[in-house]
Amino acid sequence: MPVAQNLMTKEKIREIIAKRAAREFKRGDVVTLGIGLPTEVANYVPDETRVIFQSENGLLGAGRLHKGERPDPRIINAGGAYVEPTMGCCFYDTLMAFTIMRGGHIDATVLGALQVDGFGNIASWMIPNKFVPGMGGSMDLVVGSKRVIVVMEHTSKGQIKIVQKCDLPLTARGEVDLIITERCVFDVDKNGLLLKEINPIFSLDEIKASTGADFRVSSELCEMVL
Amino acid sequence: MPVAQNLMTKEKIREIIAKRAAREFKRGDVVTLGIGLPTEVANYVPDETRVIFQSENGLLGAGRLHKGERPDPRIINAGGAYVEPTMGCCFYDTLMAFTIMRGGHIDATVLGALQVDGFGNIASWMIPNKFVPGMGGSMDLVVGSKRVIVVMEHTSKGQIKIVQKCDLPLTARGEVDLIITERCVFDVDKNGLLLKEINPIFSLDEIKASTGADFRVSSELCEMVL
Amino acid sequence: MKKVVSVHDAIELIKDGASIMIGGFLSCGTPDKLIDELVKQGKKNLTMICNDTSYPNTDKGKIIANKLVKKLIAAHIGTNPDTGAQMHNGEIEVELIPMGTLVEKIRAKGAGLGGVLTQTGVGTILEENKETIEIEGKKFIFEKPLGADFALIYGTKVDSFGNVAFYGTTRNFNTVMATAADTVIVQADEIVECLDPNDVVIPGLFVDYIVKREEV
Amino acid sequence: MKKVVSVHDAIELIKDGASIMIGGFLSCGTPDKLIDELVKQGKKNLTMICNDTSYPNTDKGKIIANKLVKKLIAAHIGTNPDTGAQMHNGEIEVELIPMGTLVEKIRAKGAGLGGVLTQTGVGTILEENKETIEIEGKKFIFEKPLGADFALIYGTKVDSFGNVAFYGTTRNFNTVMATAADTVIVQADEIVECLDPNDVVIPGLFVDYIVKREEV
After folding, report:
1. Cβ separation of B92 and D163 shorter than 8 Å?
2. Residue D20, SS3 per DSSP
3. ipTM of the complex in this document
4. Buried b (16+ CB within 10 A) or exposed e, C29-41
5. B15 is annotated as an active-site residue
6. Torsion angle in degrees (nearest 10) through CA of C186, C190, C195, C196
7. What are the distances in angstroms from CA B92 to CA A103, C175, D154?
8. End-to-end CA distance of chain B, in Å?
9. D113–C116 CB contact, under 8 Å
10. Are residues D94 and D87 in contact, defined by beta-carbon separation less than 8 angstroms?
11. pLDDT at residue number C215
12. What residues of D are in contact with residue C133 (Cβ under 8 Å)?
């Protein structure tokens, strides 16, 4: 493990990733966030960006978590948490949620992954015989979104997650556009991975050693904004 | 033309047909009526039958025509007429209307026809190069309804409408269950037409002469209630 | 916030030759003001997708009367003899599609589905030149998704976020068309700041421009 | 008028071995009282169709905990470890279906369509043993319609005609399930005489029985 990794707490790692992902949205984008780390991205999106968060359980305009004493159990987000709807929000059923998601009406999706590769493949929904939560809405979402942004720790307990070719069951084939970790940012294009940003506390060699897939280095490689 | 036909005005003919069709519904049936003569069927359905009229333009619970001076142009039936919604009605879009109609949720449909035959075929939407209004919702409706009841004058300007086999473009194949004219009532089953009621002012020979299809006569043949 | 624009500016976006969906069942829930402007600006060679062509020289019927249409895709044209006349003398190409199939084709486009499998039309001339698929012994016609460059729709109340609510039987094709066009323009009877989120029928993300219908 | 019945009488209609759809996304919009009664009456060998199995021993999770289910069809079971455990030791058969495909399969049944054509799952193990169709160079998975003997759904306000209205994110699968089951039982937070016809989300003709949720 690179020495620098020890300089970052788990919280710091998540913050770096979420902050960086939050910079990916254009004004007025409709965005869907996966459960877990992706949810934290919302905390760093400036209000003036007016990003609209879509929740697959039937809510366009999901706001912050309910802070009061008596939340309304009839308003939740896709993670099951009680949320406060934002001004201008609306409710709908699962049919409309997936018309929105599969129909190409989501500008960007941010979700986690177990594995990704340079072919844009993503595996995020099962480890056979071990972890089988089901795909939920993730398969539709990844297939239907205009942009798919994977956010995850660069490695998991030392295990490589950006691999030459995913060997876990896929969520979708060839759909990932961007990979953001605490160490770097990769574009995924027709030719594979392109390293475009690097966290300055890591060396290129450290990135290479902790990445299972070949990648090109952008001629415009720059430091990740932390 | 049978002599008896002259005893009936156009209005009387329509009344006989509509009254007879109105006896076909069970309590609480959801019914869709076609434009024209079928619409008049509603006038003879007793309130206590609690039949619910579905209108393909997005109304469950269509009531009588609006009689006031200033109808609301935002509430129409499928014929474009201003209607008064009934107590317990609801509005929906075309998608839901055809989920209801094609999905098998309509108990009975009453519609007119240009031709019908003993195979349950119905032609009602065009006469090539002459009359091409389009099928509107009729094709979905006939395919999706639990029962299809055709109401029409027995002949049109002397021309036979109940034919051996329809030669006009079909609306649907094998979907008609019952044919009601001013002269008689035919069941349509696997073996073809079965005459089950006859208007007593017509003879069996007159029915035969004005019907292009072969038919069986029910052992329980009875007089049409006029 | 969605752009509230003038009817002129909204319709000016449409180029000759564009495909446009227009909501409404006859005159009910039809964006009449958008149509008037379309006629005023004299767009040409349009492909028009709608339930019907209304009545002669009335709302959608004005587009027919002014001969702006090259191709019409509709379920019913019987209420407007102009359409039949133009079809018979070859001025416009008309494709008639069962209403339930038409609405599903549009929905399939909006929902990212590969097409529609329906029994409607099986055993009729509609089956000709169509792919059919046998599923558990029954025959189904395969119909492709149907989208358009523009959708001109009606809304009873529209809020500044683009959310749309309806009154009465005005919903008809407006809801699905909003999901299936590149640019969606809604004519609002009334524009409000914010609708009750439980009353919204078309989520705001589908709407690009809002035009207020001034009372005549 | 629809039948307002006791929860006992409504659930008694369900026989062992029946297929039942249950609305709700986790605990939201889930007919918890109908589920409690299902557990109380100890129905067996059920095929259960739902989005998820909620949390351990909570609403839908109670059905799992009490081992009433032979086969489960769902999109996500990760919030309830009981389900995974029963799946792994072979007590229940689980079919996982992407949420968007599941909702379309149910809709296809309700809408009388022949099936669903979706790109979701293409290139994954979901494609195995499925028919695929190539449409304009893209591959689609064909999925069959999915119905059930019963649908147990939730409604915020239900009127005496069976019309259902919702508050918040409680709609989820309740709307489509109402169209796709032979018998539909709705648990109502509140029963009113007559809803505003513009507020109705599930038209009354789909609902067979209404059960009032008594406040605990």
Report:
1. no
2. strand
3. 0.97
4. bbbbbbbebbbee
5. no
6. -120
7. 22, 10, 20
8. 20
9. yes
10. yes
11. 57
12. 114
pLDDT for the residue D215: 57
Extract the residue ranges of chain D whose pLDDT is less than 50. Answer: 216
Residue of A nearest to C193 (CA): A88
Residue of B24, B40, B56, B197 marked catalytic: B56
Which position has the token pair 């029994």?
A: C119
Place of tokens 């940012």: A185
- Residue written as token pair 């978590």: A65
Q: In this predicted model, what pLDDT tens digit does every residue of C144-197 receive, in sequence order?
A: 999 999 999 999 999 999 999 999 999 999 999 999 999 999 999 999 999 999
Q: Provide mean pLDDT across the span C26-31.
A: 98
Question: Which percentage of chain A shows pLDDT scores above 70?
Answer: 99
Which tokens belong to A25?
């949205």
- How open is the CA angle D47-D60-D5, to the nearest 5 degrees? 85
A64, A37 Cβ separation under 8 angstroms? no
Nearest to B51 by CA among B78, B21, B26, B82: B26
Unique residue bearing structure tokens 């639990």: B146
Strand partners, C202: C164
How far apart are the CA of B185 and the nearest CA of chain D, in angstroms?
Answer: 29
Kindly list the residues from chain B whose CB atom is less than 8 angstroms away from the CB atom of residue C176: 93-95
CB count, 10 Å around CB of A158? 8
Beta-carbon neighbour count of residue D38 at 10 Å?
25
Is the pTM higher than 0.95?
A: yes
Structure tokens at C102: 């038409």
Residues in chain C: 216
Q: Where are any strands of DSSP class E within B82-214?
A: 83-91, 108-111, 115-117, 122-123, 147-151, 155-156, 159-160, 162-163, 178-180, 184-189, 192-198
Amino acid at B144: G
**How far is it, in rounded angstroms, from Cα B145 to Cα B143?**
6
Strand partners, C94: C72
CA dihedral C76, C80, C85, C91 (to 10 degrees): -70
In this complex, is the C-beta atom of C198 within 8 Å of any C-beta atom belonging to chain D? yes
Which of chain D's residues have a Cβ under 8 Å away from the Cβ of C168? Answer: 198
Size of interface B-C (CB pairs under 8 A): 136
The residue type at C199: D
Locate D100 and state its tokens: 């968007």
Q: Which residues of A are catalytic?
A: 56
Gap between the Cα atoms of C43 and D73, Å rounded: 51
Interface of B with D in 177-216 (CB under 8 A): none
CB of A173 less than 8 A from some CB of D: yes
Question: If residue D34 lies in a helix (H) or strand (E), which one and from where to where?
Answer: helix D32-40
The answer, yes or no, to whether residue B130 has pLDDT greater than 80, is yes
d(CA A178, CA B203): 82
Contact B85 D1 (CB under 8 A): no
Give the pLDDT confidence of C45-99 residue by residue, as tens digits: 999 999 999 999 999 999 999 999 999 999 999 999 999 999 999 999 999 999 9
User: Which pLDDT band holds residue A31 (cuts at 50, 70, 90)?
Assistant: very high
